[in-house]
Structure to design on (230 residues):
């Protein structure tokens, strides 16, 4: 009986190690860069807490790109549930910023949610900025939010560029745990520049995004798209 119990404890401990180490931020980013929906789905199922929510968020983006809208919607709902639960327990700026990003994507799927979720997004980003004003992911999500928000309502392309630049500068700080978004910040700043007619500046930002993360698929796609047009 004692041997059996020890064996069971060993198996359980190995399962827990595997469970917690199977999905980390870099693994999820790598799967998202290659739009590997199978791996993202596995990470979503096996990760816990913030990593699970992040996997669901990236899964939603990938599913939307390839036209699996229901999977994208379900993944966003899963991310929302996970993050809202985490925020009740122990709020953090990264949780608040990611939930704001999730809300923003939900609004893009269903504009009727804009009134309620738009206000929640603004509150979350303000709380996150108050909690960690130097957090680059907070600045990045604020930049994304400003990109889609008219200037009359406090957003606009100039503000989006400013916040993306702020995020880029903040990403120069050392990072050991939650570190996603550096290449993404350059990409969003490039998109804002493109919208304002500064294609040269946009191309430079997208190229820098690839230098930051050579596997970053979105910036590569945007650059290739411009090459085809030329």
């Amino acid at each position: 009986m004692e041997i059996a119990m020890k064996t069971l404890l060993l198996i359980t401990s190995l399962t827990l190690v595997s469970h917690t180490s199977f999905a980390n931020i870099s693994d999820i980013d790598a799967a998202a860069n290659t739009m590997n929906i199978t791996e993202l789905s596995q990470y979503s199922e096996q990760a816990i807490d913030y990593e699970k929510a992040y996997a669901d968020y990236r899964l939603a983006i990938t599913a939307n790109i390839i036209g699996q809208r229901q999977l994208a919607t379900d993944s966003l709902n899963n991310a929302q549930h996970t993050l809202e639960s985490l925020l009740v327990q122990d709020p953090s700026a990264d949780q608040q910023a990611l939930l704001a990003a999730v809300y923003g994507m939900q609004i893009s799927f269903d504009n009727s949610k804009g009134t309620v979720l738009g206000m929640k997004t603004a509150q979350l980003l303000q709380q996150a900025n108050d909690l960690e004003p130097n957090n680059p992911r907070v600045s990045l999500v604020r930049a994304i939010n400003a990109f889609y928000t008219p200037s009359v309502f406090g957003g606009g392309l100039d503000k989006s560029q400013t916040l993306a630049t702020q995020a880029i500068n903040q990403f120069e700080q050392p990072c050991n745990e939650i570190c996603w978004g550096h290449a993404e910040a350059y990409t969003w700043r490039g998109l804002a520049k493109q919208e304002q007619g500064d294609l040269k500046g946009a191309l430079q930002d997208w190229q820098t995004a690839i230098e930051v993360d050579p596997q970053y698929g979105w910036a590569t796609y945007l650059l290739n798209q411009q090459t085809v047009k030329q």
Remarks:
- Residues 1-21 have pLDDT under 50 and may be disordered.
- Residues 18-133 form one domain.
